[in-house]
Specification:
about 300 residues; mainly alpha; f41 fragment of flagellin, N-terminal domain; 2 domains; two-stranded antiparallel ribbon; about 65% helix
Length: about 300
C-alpha cells in the first residue's frame, strides 16, 4: 500500500513499469513476427518513406517486366533479320551462277527463289504473343500478304505486299528513358528484297537476263540495308537493357531500405528485450522495497 510519503515515488515507478511492459510486449511481437510494427502507426517516422519506397519499387518492377517483353521482341526481330540476310545471300549466289551461265537453262532457280520467298514472308510475318513484329504500330495486322502478290512492275521495288503502317513503336523504359523501336516491313530494304525475289522468279521463268540483272541490283541494296536494320534493332535493345539494369539495381536498393524499415533486427531486438525485462524486474523490486518502508524501521 502506498503511503503519503512514498506516493510520488510509486507513481513515477508505476508509469515507468507501464512503459517498460509496453516495450517488452512490442519487442516480443517484433521477435515473433519478424516485423518492426503491425501497422503504419507503429513506425510514424518512417511510414511515409516506406509507402513512397514501396510505390517506387512497384513501378520499377513494372518497368522491368515491360522491358523484358520489349527485349524479347527485339531479339526475335534481330533473329528474323539475320535469317533474311542469310536467305538474301544465298539468292545472290544463285543469281550470280545463273547470270554466269553455271546453272543451265531457264527455270532452274525459279523454284528455289519461290521457296526463299516463302521463307522471307514467313520471317516478316513473325509474331509473338499475338503481335506482328514488322507491322509498325499495326501490331494486330499481318504485314505481308500470303501468297505474296506480284509488284506493279517487275524489277521495280514497291510495297504492294505490305498491310501494316510506317510508324515505329514507342515505349517508356524508365521514368527518364523513352525508346523508339521496331522496323516496319515497308522499308526500302524489304521492298528490294521481295522485289528481287519476284524479279528472279519472273526473269528465270521468261529467261529475261535484264530482269535477272535488275534483281541482282535490288538484292545488293537489300543486303546493304538489312545489316543497318539489325544495328538499329541492336541500338534499341541496348537502350532497353541498360534501363532494365538500372531498374533492377534500384529494386535491390529499395528492397534493402524496405527491409530495414519493416523487418526486425532480431539480435538487437533480443538485446533490447533483455534490457527491458531487467529494468522491469528492477522496478518491481523497487516497489516491493518501498512498500516495506515505515517510520518504525528507523526508530
Amino acid at each position: 500500500m502506498s503511503r503519503v510519503a512514498t506516493i510520488a515515488q510509486h507513481s513515477i515507478i508505476q508509469n515507468s513499469i507501464f512503459k517498460t511492459q509496453e516495450r517488452v510486449y512490442q519487442r516480443q511481437i517484433q521477435i515473433a513476427t519478424g516485423k518492426t510494427a503491425q501497422s503504419f502507426s507503429g513506425i510514424p517516422l518512417n511510414a511515409q518513406r516506406l509507402i513512397g519506397m514501396e510505390a517506387r519499387m512497384q513501378r520499377s518492377e513494372i518497368f522491368v517486366l515491360q522491358n523484358g517483353l520489349i527485349e524479347a521482341r527485339l531479339a526475335l526481330m534481330d533473329s528474323a533479320l539475320d535469317n533474311m540476310f542469310e536467305v538474301a545471300s544465298e539468292l545472290k549466289v544463285r543469281l550470280l551462277q545463273k547470270l554466269n551461265g553455271a546453272t543451265g537453262t531457264a527455270g532452274t532457280i525459279a523454284a528455289e527463289a519461290s521457296n526463299m520467298l516463302g521463307t522471307i514472308s514467313g520471317l516478316m510475318n513473325t509474331q509473338t504473343n499475338g503481335r506482328f513484329l514488322f507491322s509498325g504500330s499495326a501490331t494486330a495486322t499481318q504485314p505481308v500478304t500470303v501468297p505474296v502478290p506480284n509488284p506493279t512492275a517487275f524489277g521495280v521495288p514497291d510495297a504492294t505486299y505490305y498491310n501494316g503502317d510506317s510508324t515505329q513503336l514507342t515505349a517508356r523504359a524508365s521514368d527518364t528513358v523513352e525508346v523508339t523501336y521496331g522496323i516496319p516491313g515497308n522499308r526500302s530494304g524489304f521492298q528490294n528484297l521481295i522485289g528481287a525475289v519476284k524479279a528472279t522468279i519472273e526473269g528465270d521463268n521468261t529467261d529475261n537476263e535484264t530482269l535477272l540483272k535488275s534483281a541482282l541490283v535490288m538484292l545488293n541494296r537489300a543486303l546493304k540495308d538489312l545489316p543497318a536494320y539489325r544495328n538499329e534493332v541492336g541500338a534499341s535493345l541496348n537502350v532497353v537493357s541498360r534501363a532494365t539494369e538500372r531498374q533492377e539495381e534500384f529494386a535491390v536498393y529499395a528492397a534493402g531500405i524496405i527491409s530495414d524499415i519493416e523487418n526486425t533486427n532480431i539480435p538487437q531486438a533480443i538485446t533490447a528485450l533483455s534490457a527491458d525485462e531487467t529494468a522491469l524486474q528492477a522496478s518491481f523490486l523497487t516497489i516491493a522495497r518501498l512498500s516495506q518502508l515505515a517510520l518504525v524501521n528507523f526508530l
